[in-house]
Amino acid sequence: MKIVEHTERYLELANQNRRCLWGLLFATPFVVIGSIATALTVKVTTLTCQRAPGNQIDCQRTIAGILGTERELIPGNLKSVKTVKTSGTGVVLGTSQGEVNLAPYKAFVTDSQYRTADRLNAFLKNPQQQTISVEQDDRWINFLWSGNFIVGGLVIGLYSLQIPLQMSCKFQHDLDRVTIDKKYLLYGDRKTVLPLSTIKQAQVRELLFSISGDRQPLYTIDLATTDAKQVSLSVSSKNLTECQRLVNIVDRFVRQHQSSLDRTS
To answer: What's phi and psi for 227, nearest 5 deg?
Structure first.
């Protein structure tokens, strides 16, 4: 925050802040990654197998997700089934033309995949059973993972939108007025008007849970009124010395105004 004008009867402070824009920029990859992961992994995979003449087994895979439904034939004839836990592979179909993952995307391997493999292997060993249909529903468990990115990005974005892009504070001795203007991307323009005579002092406040990347604390300037209210005067800053300098200037201006009122009363 800097001093725009300072006289005995008028004091104006102003600040332009880019933390809002940086916060939105930082939040965007989380939302994008989470959305892509949701579209690619929040799906239901259904495998339908049927015995053909010669005891061959043909299978069709159906994958339903946010982007639509895909159907495809599994190449070759089903010969074996296993579960691979590493790398989020899950159920693997062994066919006459090689191995094919049941789900063509990464998923959390749970007991459900092992039960699916057991059912398919039982089907392979039972020539009396002509068809089988199994389903792997990865919607909720994968959304809990990808949704964390989306929620995290939205929280950061919403927090950033509450940081004003611009702030100005005008202390007017003749009008006994303090005018604080704040411009937000989310809220638009907000104005607070207070009698200058109700300002008790300015003070530096250290922000809780707002530590910058280099582990330095952040500070802001508040105006304390005679009715014990705290009015935010500035955006956060790491420069404690500068904040204290501005507080001293504001306090001096407020004391001069109070002295003037006392002399006229």
So the answer is: -100, 25
| Long-range Cβ contact pairs of 257-264 (< 8 A, separation 24 or more) | 257/171, 257/173, 257/176, 257/196, 257/197, 258/197, 260/173, 261/197
* Domain assignment present for 256: yes
Q: Look up the domain containing 255 and give its range.
A: 2-17+165-264
First to last CA, the chain: 34
Question: Strand 177-184's sheet: what is its strand order?
Answer: 2-6, 10-16, 166-172, 177-184, 188-195
Q: How many residues does the chain have?
A: 265
Indicate which CATH number applies to the domain containing 250.
2.30.29
pLDDT of residue 144: 87
Write down the pLDDT at residue 60. Answer: 95
* Cα gap 54→246, rounded to integer Å: 89
Say if residue 169 is in the same domain as residue 259: yes
* Among candidate residues 89, 121, 137, the one where a domain is terminated: 137
pTM of the model: 0.66
What's the chain's Rg over C-alpha atoms? 33
The count of structural domains within the chain is 2
Same domain, 129 and 177: no
For residues 200 and 234, what is the distance between their CA atoms, to the nearest angstrom?
17
- The pLDDT assigned to 211 comes to 44
Question: pLDDT of 191-209, one tens digit each?
Answer: 999 999 999 999 998 877 5
Instruction: Flag residues of the chain having pLDDT under 50.
Output: 211
* Residues forming a β-bridge with 63: 45, 70
Task: Indicate whether 251 and 169 sit together in one domain.
Answer: yes
